[in-house]
Amino acid sequence: MTGHSSPIIRALSRHWRNVPKWVNSPGLVTGLVLLLAAALTAGLPSAVAVGLLTAMMIVALWHPRGALFAVPATLPFAPFQAVIGGASFSVLELALVSTVSSVALRQVWSCVRARSLRPSLARAVELTSRAAFAPLALALIVVGTASLGVVADPSHWRESLREWRWSVVEPIAYYAAALWLLQRADEGRKLLAVWVGASVLAAIVCVMQWLAGGGLTVEGVRRLTGFYSHPNAAALALERSVLLALAIGFGSTGRARYIWWCASAVIGLATVLTFSRGVMLALLLGTAALLWSLRQYRWFYGLLLASFLVALFGVLTFPERLRAGFWAGGEALRLAIWRSALAIIRDHPLTGVGLDQFLYQYAPRYIDPAAWPERFTSHPHNLLLEAWVTFGLNGIFLLASALWLVIKSVRRRSVWPLDLAVGISLLGGFVHGLVDRGFFTAELSLSFWLAAVILDAPRTARSAAVEAGGKPCECW
């Protein structure tokens, strides 16, 4: 039997080598995955949707590294849902699960062919020992899984399980799959380029929607909502890619610099049109930190002057928007929500209330009368408080560990300018997270672990060592 099949296999192998390279390119596979993901959002019959999902899985198995790039490409379109049977999944989740599953299935098949787990286990141990964020990933999985057993309201356990899947397991699984697959020096930049390119497309669509009269009119302004139900959610989804493109542009040369800056300007326009105060602060401090770290002092002082003039214009033109949300009946609205979060923490200091449990504790038991306009809020509008409310003291430890790892990795400067770019991007997200959400959504969690991929790749990728940023690096 083997003797008959071997010539056939060799013939197919020779035939495959004659196929044009673009047929087997990551770009083609990425496009196919995105096309299938988009088709799944069209409200098709369940049988057709299952068929398309199966096709997506086959494409991902064909070229996992190509499917890897489809995940950041769907990041700005995460609100788009595909209904399969009685369940709904975001296009981001579909792309992510198909990619991770393809990597896992290929490894299982490799172990079956080799009749040994040893090579895969050795590779896993090597990645874990080299990746700086691997201990944080393992700790988050352990803490997040343990929190499912101590949720404050067991009747909403399914909501906790859903957030555990979205913000803990799936993003970390992508982080592991990406580190497993990355091989060459340019792939980290390509991952970020795909994310920024998709954000540009999303921003253009959102601005066109806003120009056509779309959005949400509140406090005297019409705020861009994009694909989200609330402008603040749209701002959170776009702000990190703005700072990312801006920082890479400053670290690039020639024509590439202006391409990155143009991308940043387009996304930035859509982000500013959300009229989110948190995103304005994040963009200002993130850009200021970027200019200061690059010793661009003239640009830095120019930014401060421009910010003052813009703030003055905003106070004169949109006074209701700038005042709204901060004060309600003589009471600071955000402070009222934070006091309620602290009251929850006092009652659950060690374990917290669990993933996605804030609303079910806040509204019936802890709401401050001054915060009645925000009675349906599902999070405490502060990253530190949210980590503590969700996981207890373990959440504070995880947040502090994440901050320390990011700072340490960025200061190493082993993959310039990507390390600085993701650091500035995360800084903007952290600043905004002090007055809004910072991590516990599928998009924000995945953007953090995508940044971790970029920062860890110099120690885990399989390519040969080269000079990066003037420093020796093991794999770039």
Q: What does it look like?
A:
This protein has 476 residues and is mostly helical. It folds into two domains: 16-118, no CATH class; 174-326 and 377-473, no CATH class. It is built from 20 helices and eight strands. It has helices at 2-17, 26-40, 46-62, 64-74, 91-114, 118-130, 134-147, 157-181, 187-211, 231-251, 255-272, 277-293, 297-317, 319-323, 333-347, 358-366, 383-391, 393-412, 418-433, 442-460; strands at 81-84, 87-90, 216-218, 221-223, 327-328, 331-332, 466-468, 471-473. Helix 9 packs across helix 11 (255-272).
Give the mean pLDDT.
83
- In the sheet with the most strands, the strands line up as 1-2
Query: How far is the N terminus from the C terminus?
Result: 45 Å
The tally of beta strands, per DSSP, is 8
Cα radius of gyration in angstroms: 23 Å
Give the count of helical stretches: 20
> Residue ranges: pLDDT <50 for 5 or more in a row?
1-6, 326-331, 464-476
Q: What's the structural domain tally?
A: 2
**Biggest sheet architecture:** 2 strands, antiparallel
What is the string of SSEs from the N terminus onward?
HHHHEEHHHHHEEHHHHHEEHHHHHHEE
What portion of residues is helical? 55-70%
Would you tell me the structural class of the helices and strands?
mainly alpha
Short précis:
The protein has 476 residues and is mainly alpha-helical.
Key terms for this structure?
476 residues, mainly alpha, 2 domains, two-stranded antiparallel sheet, 20 helices, globular, disordered C terminus
